[in-house]
Amino acid sequence: MIKIIACFLVLQLTFTHVIAQNKTVDYGNNPSAGKYYNIRGFKMYCEVYGSGKPLLLIHGNGGNISAFKNNISYFAKKYKVIAVDSRAHGKSTDNSDSLSFEMMADDFAALLTAMHIDSAYVIGWSDGGINALLLAMRHPEKVIKLASTGANLWPDSTALIPSLWKDEKRNFDEHANKPFGKAKEKNDWKIFMLDWLQPNIPLSQLHSIQCPSLIISGDHDLITLEHTVQIYQNIPHAYLWILPNSSHGTLIDHKDDFNKKVDDFFTMPFHSWN
Questions:
Q1: Burial of 252 (0-12, 13-18, 19+ CB in 10 A)
Q2: What is the dihedral of CA 83, 206, 62, 257, to 10 degrees?
Q3: What is the pLDDT of residues 94-148, one digit of tens each?
Q4: In 227-272, where do the E strands start and end?
Q5: What is the pLDDT of residues 52-100, one digit of tens each?
Q6: How many CA atoms lie within 13 A of 157 on its CB side?
Q7: 69 near 33, Cβ under 8 Å?
């Protein structure tokens, strides 16, 4: 009888563990992991998972923490993952009229300081990739290594594929003179204008990035391959990784390869072949 009870308890514990492992985490809306930080005139929302060396995740334009739903659990096994809603995105509300990538990069540096974190690994996607580069330029002491996927340095059709640039121009022409009554409409327009007018980063500024950098793009990315190569070529200690059969969402289309490759890059010493 005792053996039967013991076996039942083992099965029950195993079943409970499987349920816990398979339970879907609502990334970006998880009160048990989330917290607000008062920094630079607004409340920045972030969620923390795992323990170990800090890893900052920065999402793209119009996104939020959930953009990394395929990546957080992997990296949380060995890093202290800090997933953030950028200024004016997700739960990080911002009532100001202006928005710039430089402002956002300073936000991330201030967040790490508020969390008593001297430096962190950084993964940035799309606008988040731009922010990762600017964070390394403006606050080099805060970045150990960075992985930037789908980033651009200027907002014209030499950096963006022509079809995307034309879509953005059409959106601008249709809405530029329309009044926005609701706060969300105003905020959405501010986020759109961020990408329409920015970034404006000269290639020469990339020379100041001293941390090892992994520059990533899909072979069917929204950012032209030539532009991604230019970014890679102008960072002193950089690797280039172009994912075949991949869209702008490299970390979604090839999540397993992306997670492992970026983790290997963070873990292994940097070797230059130049």
A1: middle
A2: -60
A3: 988 889 999 999 999 999 999 999 999 999 999 999 999 999 999 999 999 999 9
A4: 238-243
A5: 999 999 999 999 999 999 999 999 999 999 999 999 999 998 988 889 9
A6: 8
A7: no
Q: Strand order of the sheet with strand 143-149?
A: 34-39, 42-49, 79-84, 53-58, 120-125, 143-149, 213-218, 238-243
User: Do β-strands 120-125 and 79-84 pair in parallel, antiparallel, or remain unpaired?
Assistant: unpaired
Instruction: Tell me the HSE value of 95 on the side-chain side, using a 13 A CA sphere.
Output: 4
Beta bridge partners of 116: none
Q: What is the dihedral of CA 104, 139, 240, 72, to 10 degrees?
A: -60
C-beta of residue 146 within 8 angstroms of C-beta of residue 125:
no
- DSSP string covering 58-97, please? E--TT--GGGGTTTHHHHTTTEEEEEE--TTBTTB----S
CA-nearest of 239, 244, 243, 246 to 266 is 239
pTM of the model: 0.90
State the Cα–Cα distance between residues 152 and 55, nearest whole angstrom. Answer: 22
- Residue 54: phi and psi, rounded to 5, are -65, 140
For the domain with range 25-267, which CATH number is right: 1.10.3720.10, 3.50.50.60, 3.20.20.10, 3.40.50.1820? 3.40.50.1820
The answer to whether residues 134 and 158 touch, using CB atoms and an 8 Å cutoff, is no
Which residues contact residue 147 at a Cβ distance below 8 angstroms, ignoring those fewer than 6 apart?
121, 122, 123, 124, 132, 213, 214, 216, 262, 265, 266
3-class secondary-structure state, position 48: strand
**Rounded CA gap, 160 and 107, in Å?**
26
